[in-house]
Amino acid sequence: MRAQVICFLALACFPPLWSQPLNKLPDWAMPHVQAVAAEAAPDGADAWVLLDRTQVAYAGDGEIRTRRFRLVKVLSERGLGQGAFILGGLGDQASRVRELRGWNLRPDGDLEKLSKDATATWESGVGGGYSTDQQILAVLPRVTKGSLVAFESLQSFRHPLGPLDATEVLEVVPIRQWELEVVLDAAWFRSVEGVAVNLDLKHFAPWIPAPVVQPGRSVKASNLPALPRGESMHPHAFDQLPFVLVRFLDPRLKETPSLATWDSLAIWLNRQYQERCPRSEASGAVGKGPLEGLKAIHAWMGRDFLYKQVYLTPSRGWLPETAVEVVRKKYGDCKDLAGCFLAEAAGLGVQGSPVLARIGGGEIQPDLPPSLTHDHVVAALRLPQSLGLAAEVETPKGRYLLVDLTDPDTPLGQLGEAHRGRWLMICDPSGALWVRAPEAAILQPRIRVEVTGEVNLGGKLTATVRFVETGDKLDLRSAARGSGKLVDFIAREILDVPPTGSITLVSQSDPRDIHRPFEAVVKVVHPDGFHRVGQEGTFVPWGLPAAPSLIQPAGKPRVQGVKSRRGDVWEFHAEYRVPGKAQPALERKEGETPFRTYAWHAEVRPQDQGTLAVMDFRQQRKDVAWLPPDQEKGVAEARKDRSVLRSIREDGLSLKLVP
Question: Does the global pTM surpass 0.90?
Fold first, then answer.
C-alpha cells in the first residue's frame, strides 16, 4: 500500500510519459526520458534539461568538431523558449554546421521535426561594430507545455589562435545530466597521434561540488541547479560560474601559437604585431624627443582616428590590420589602434609590444590556463629611462609605458577606470610579462553638477545647470565629441526634461582637450520643477545620482555573491530661490556604507520676498564584495545603502513651506 502511494505522488508531480510514443525520439534520448518517469521535476522550474551532452574532438590541422545532444522537458508556458536552439559560429568559412536536427514530441503524441525553413543565420556584430561572427537559430514548431524537445548538432571550427573550445555549464533551468567528453576514436576524426589534450575545470565548487572527472577525457555532473533569476550586482560569470576549457596541443601546427603556456602565446603575438606593424613615420613626430614625440602621436591618433569594432573576418578578431591600412582608414579596433601606435613609436626609435587585457568583465589571472579570455589590447613601450608618467611599470625585462589607444579622453601616461586593479599581459619577444595597472595611473571618473535656479508661485523652475566632468563619467564628452547633439543627450539621458519644458545650450568646452575636465552649461525650464503637496515642495532631482535598484527579488534567498566595482566621485551644489518662507526637510545626513561615503547638507537663507535654499552633496563609491556564504549580508547592506540614497533624493530635495 505504501509503495502505491509513493508511486501515485510521483506520477502526480511528473505526468506519465508513456502517453507519448517515445520511439519517435532519437535512440540517445529514450533512456533519459524513461529514467525520470517516476521522478519529480525540480520545484519552480519552467523546463528541465534531461540531458546536455557535448562531444569535442580534434580533427587535425587545427580543426575542432563538436557534437551536441540536448533533451528538454517543457514544464510551463515560460519554458516554451526551450524550443529554440542557438549555435555560435565564426563565419567566413571558419566554422560550419555539418548537421542539425530537432524533434518536438508533444504531449498529444504528435511529432514535429525541425525543417530547414525554421533555421536562420545572422551576423552577430554588436555595439555599432562590423563582424562576420554568426548565430544560427533553429526553432521547433508547436512546442507546448509537456513537450519533449530534442536537438542534435555537429559543428566544425578553425579558431585563428588554435584548436581550443570553452563550454559553460549552468543555465537558467535545472539540468539533470550534463556531460562533456573528448572523443579520440570516432570515425569522423583523423589521427590525432602526438596531440596532447588539456581539460581545465574552473569554478565548479560550490555550484557542482562532486563532478565525475576523467582527466583529459571527460566531465560529468548530475542534478545541476538553475541559475537564479533577478539577481544583480553579482560577480561576473567568468569569475564565479563553472566552465570547461578544452585545449588540443598539436606540435605540427605552425600558423597558430601553442597554447601550452602564456609565454608561447605572447611570443607568437609579438611576432605577428612586428610583422604587421613595422616602423612608420606617418604621424610626423620624427625628430622630436621621446616624450614630446609620443605625446604628438597620441594627440594625432586621438584627434583623427576613430575606435570601431571591425572584426570583418574571424582572423580579424585576433590579429591587427596593418599599420598602413589603419593610417589610411583612420579607424580601427583596439588591436588595430595599438598596432598603429607601436609602429609610429618605432618611428621615434621607441620599441614596444602588444598587451592583452580584460576590461569587459571578470578578472584574468596569471595562473589561469592559456586561452582566448582577454577582450582588449593596449600598447606597451619599452623605456630606457623613465619619462615620469604614472602608467609606467617595472618588469624583469625593464620599464614599460602602458597606453590605451581606445580611450581618447585619457591623457598619455594615464589609464581609464576599466583598468583599475587589473592584470595585463605584455607580449614581450621573450614571453609573457604580467603587470598590474598602476593605481596612480587611473583617471578617476568624477562629475560635479552645479544648479542655480528660481521657482515661481506655480512651481515652474528656471535653472542654469553646469556640468564639470572628468573621465567621461556621464558620457558628456563622448556625446559632444561624437554626434555633436550634446543638448539632446543631456535632456534625454541626464535631466529628463519633459516635452512641456525646454533646454538650451549656453556653452561647452572643447571635448578634444583631454588635459582639462569637460564643461557644459545649459539653461533648463521645467513647468513643475518644484512640485507642491500641501505644505511641502520637492525639487526635480537634477544633479543627484539615482538611487540603486533592488538587487534581489523579495522573499527569495540569495544564491550568488554580491559585488560592486566602483571608484567614482559625484559632487552636487544647488542654489534655489523660492517664494515665501521655507525650511529644509533634511538638513544633514552623512556617513558611510560599505558601498560609498556620503555627505548631504542643506540650509536656507532669508531673501527679499523669498528664501534661498542651498544644498550640497558628495559621494565616493567603493569596491565591495560578499562572496558565498556571506551573500545575504551583502543583500542586507545593499538595501541599507539604497535607503540612504532614496532618503537624500526624496527628503533632501524637499522644503517645508512656512505659512
Answer: no
